[in-house]
Design goal:
222 residues; mainly alpha; Arc Repressor Mutant, subunit A; 55% helix
Length: 222
């Protein structure tokens, strides 16, 4: 039994192979291994590329919270599922599973950055650098809150989007502000275009008749 358990503990044999090799019923071997917290793979896999010493180093890094399980798996060449199982069995509190760095800015920083952009005191790129907030986060919040960006931060838009927005406003389906947010258009551009289209509709220009071409002087026949 001890030899079979050692084979399972070192992952040199699967549960089925250890059961056959040492003549122990698989259910009995599984129950004993399960009580001892030993993994019991059902199939023989490739030989492991890590040692117990490497595993202990990885577990210590997880225990200190200096690395995530995913990152430790890549760094030490140990399957992440193995690390998760052993860490959970030993009561190790795992760090964030993804290698994302924690945010260095607070909600107050975000509000100050948005207010500076809203008042035109700064641009998105400059606010991102000043407050340490990703520019993508600022762009997304500006769009969601309907903050008009300055000309130094132009928002790309197409004529098709402008046409659809004008039609939505004309039909009363949206306000100018709602259409600007929905179609990702600058409010001032949409407002100016809508006023111009409305003025042209109310004051159609009269087409001038083309001038009658003058006939050349015909000389009298001699």
């Amino acid at each position: 039994m001890d030899a079979a358990l050692d084979a399972l503990r070192s992952h040199s044999m699967s549960l089925t192979k250890a059961s056959i090799t040492y003549g122990i019923p698989s259910t009995t071997l599984w129950q004993r291994a399960h009580r001892l917290g030993i993994d019991t793979p059902k199939k023989d896999g490739p030989a492991k590329s890590w040692t117990e010493d490497v595993l202990n180093v990885a577990l210590e890094a997880l225990r200190n919270g200096s690395i995530s399980a995913n990152k430790a798996s890549k760094a030490y060449g140990i399957p992440s599922s193995t690390l998760y199982k052993i860490a959970r069995r030993e009561g190790i509190r795992l760090a964030a599973p993804f290698n994302a760095a924690p945010t260095t800015w607070s909600p107050e920083d975000l509000e100050r950055a948005l207010e500076a952009i809203r008042s035109g005191q700064t641009t998105v790129q400059r606010a991102a650098a000043d407050f340490g907030i990703p520019s993508g986060t600022l762009y997304g919040r500006c769009k969601r809150e309907g903050i008009e960006l300055s000309r130094s931060n132009p928002t790309p838009w197409s004529e098709d989007a402008m046409t659809e927005a004008l039609e939505a406003v004309r039909l009363g389906q949206m306000s100018i502000n709602q259409a600007a947010i929905h179609y990702n258009l600058p409010y001032s551009s949409l407002y100016g275009r809508f006023k111009r289209v409305k003025y042209e509709a109310d004051h159609p220009t009269e087409t001038e008749e083309p001038p009658i071409p003058s006939h050349p002087n015909l000389s009298a026949p001699q």
